[in-house]
Every structure is written in structure tokens, then in C-alpha cells.
Amino acid sequence: MTVTLKEVAARAGVSRSAVSRTFTEGASVSAKTRQKVEEAAEELGYRPSLIARSLATNRTKLIGLVANNFRNPVFLEVFDLFTQTLQRRGFRPLLVNLSTETDSEKSLEMLRQYRVDGIIIATSTLPPTFPNAFRKAGVPVIHAFGKIHTSSGVSIVGIDNRHCGEMAAQTLFDRGYRNIALLAGPQSATSTQDRLEGFLKRTSELGIEPVDVRFASEYSYASGKEAMATLLDERTVEALFCGDDLICMGAMDAAREYGLSIPEEIGFLGFNDMNMASWSAYDLTTIRQPVRDIILSSVELVVAMIEGSEEGNKNLLFPCSITERSSLKPLP
């Protein structure tokens, strides 16, 4: 049977409030009382109730991770880093899948029912109404992988996607490709919009024009393969920049089925540098997004906001880099 706080108080010869203070972080209790309570708790096998503690402190130690792209393996890395970092800081994760949810107020109400202390939104495909709704409700919120808006009061941790688009165009150009195309992620994603803008800006500066720009319906292997098969039926292309590694892998397999060899007849540049990108079947040259830095910084920032040591919005952008493999021709 579960040992109660009352039983520990009786065994230690102290009040129930003394037992409660002993197991409440930061509460005042004398060293003598603490020793008596801890000894009694050990003898009885008592473990304090986290639910009861949250009611007393008005803190649940829960942080919600909100995402809507759970089928992409990159999210496994995100979730692993998120949970490990939280647990080291004494917090617990609450995973929220918004893959079919579009109502920010409904989502906010669900999270408030769990009384989360803070929220990390880990996606670029949710509309700005989501983080803004949480902020207006007074819940500390960080938007990881988001787009910086000068009018937003929400902290953003991510990358400069426009620069990544420019980097992609320059990378293909430097390897001698001229008939290039962009196979981006969902058109509604802010990251897609920014990478497209940067890609078109740099190609214009280089004096070339992409032969095609297409958008995958989602960040998935199947959508990449489907979009690529259609493109190859309509266009002749030397190389593609794909807005996600998984999309790129689908596109690569579509090209192989079309009878093209990689990188001799067609080259591919991905984005993210997920673990699968290094598999020998793909050996994908890709733009590495520092997912680890983004998640660790997001957790540290939201915890600081909860604890009151960080106020106002703070935007952190991390640099990306090229991971060289064999899906593109080497530099001349």
C-alpha cells in the first residue's frame, strides 16, 4: 500500500507541513527536522507525490513539446535531445502531436489543462497564431526552427533559412551545374519560403535561372519520390536542391528508377544531415542543420524563462554547413 505523508509525519514526530516542506524544493526546514523526516521516509518507503507537490507549488515541472511532423526521422533526434535535456534539468516532457490540429485556441486549452510550465514549438509549418496564442496566455514559449518576425514577442531559436537557400545555389553552381531545380518542402512552411527566396536570389546573382521549382506535399520519402517522378517526365535537370533529406532520398530513388546514375547524370543536395543521409544507399551531400544546438538552446531558454532569469524575446540563429558525401560531383 502507498505510504502517506501523514504516516511519515507520525513516525518522525513532526507535523504534516514539516514533511511537505522537507520534500519541497526551496522550502524552509531545520536540519534536525529534515533528518528526522528523511529517516522516517526511508524506513517506510515513502515517495513524495509529484501531483501533490505541483498543487502546492503551482508548478508541474512539465514542458510541452509541440510538433506536427512525427513521421520524419529527424524528429526522433529532436525528441531524444529534448527529453534528455529536460530530465537533466529536473523537468518532464509532455509530447503534443498537432499533425491534424489547426485551431491554436483549442491546442492552448489542451496544454493548459495539463498546466505545463512552458512550451517549445518544434516546427516551421504551424502558423504564427500558435506561438502568439501561447505567449498571450502568459505561458513561456520558445519557437524552435521558426522564422524571426520583428513584430513577434516570441523567442526564436533556429537558422537563417534564406542564407541556406543561397548556400545551396552556390554549392550547385560551384560544381558546374547550370540546369538546376528546387524540390522544396511544403509551400506553407516558413522555412520553405525563406529557402526559396534565398535560392532564387543567389541564382539570379549568378546569372542562372532554375529550370523548375516544386513543392512536396509533406516532409516524407513518398512525397519526394512522387514529385521527382513528375518533374523528370517534364524537365531535363542536372542537379536538385531538396528542402529535406527524406524528400531528397525519395527523389534519388525516383531518379534511379528513371535510369539516371548519381552523381554522373544527376546530382542531389539535401538538407538537415539526418542519420540516414550517411547510409551507403544514399551517401547524401547535404546542408547540415545544427539540430542539437537548436534543441539544447531552446530548452535552456524556456527553463530560464520559467525560473525568471530570462525575460522578453531572444532570437538565436545558428550557422549551417555543407556535409560532403557523394551525391554531387566534386568541386573542379
TrEMBL record:
SMART domains per the UniProt record, alphabetical: HTH_LACI
Domain HTH lacI-type: 3-57
Coiled-coil regions, chain positions: none
Pfam families reported for this sequence: LacI (PF00356), Peripla_BP_1 (PF00532)
InterPro entries recorded: HTH_LacI, Lambda_DNA-bd_dom_sf, Peripla_BP/Lac1_sug-bd_dom, Peripla_BP_I
GO molecular function: DNA-binding transcription factor activity; transcription cis-regulatory region binding
UniProt name for this protein: LacI family DNA-binding transcriptional regulator
Species: Hoeflea prorocentri
Keywords from the named record: DNA-binding, Repressor, Transcription, Transcription regulation
Record-annotated membrane-spanning stretches: none
